[in-house]
Amino acid sequence: MAVRQNLHKALSPCILEVERKFHSLAVHQLTQNGGNPPFQSLRTLPLQIIRDTYYDKADLLSSSGAWIRRRNGIWEAKIRKGGDFTNSRFEELSRVSDIAACVENITKIQAHERENFGLGIMADFTTTRETWIADDEFRIVRDNMDFGHEVGEVELQRALEGEGGGVPSEEEKMVEMQRMDERISEFMRRYSWAFTSGKPVGKLTAYFEMMGKKRS
Asked: For residue range 162-184, what is the model confidence (pLDDT) as tens digits?
């Protein structure tokens, strides 16, 4: 999918997220010694209930690689920086002013967050999330949505600063995300006993299929 350049003013530090989806866990319950080799460490985080409401305007945002949502009432934006729907690379925005600038850049709409940035709801669902931290840094999540779909992800996240502590360049972001993606790939190969080999389907894709909507 093509990504528009300069979707927003970069933040310092920039928050990068790289994720690889998996169809499901190959074990009933994830444990440190559930397979060979065992995880170096495994920490279970509290169960989460997540309400996600996604917004768009005539598919302008999603077709540009930008996803705007309210997660449990808090605005977030994810800007695609490469990969595909299975192996994804994102820059994340959390400041309302940056989200508004991103929306305006793509849609040309100037609107306050109270007006949902001039956007309409395109998806709304609740997720029950199980989360583990493996080997002290790899986040493994298993999501079960209220419309009957399950999917998992292995994620790495990093706050990146540019040379000399300034704003990182696009090249610096791409290099770092490539490194993160390679590390996730190696992690999943090493612990292949934990993950099924079936093709994963992302939650939004599954939601649109359930609603009979065509994904742009």
From this structure: 666 677 888 888 999 999 999 99
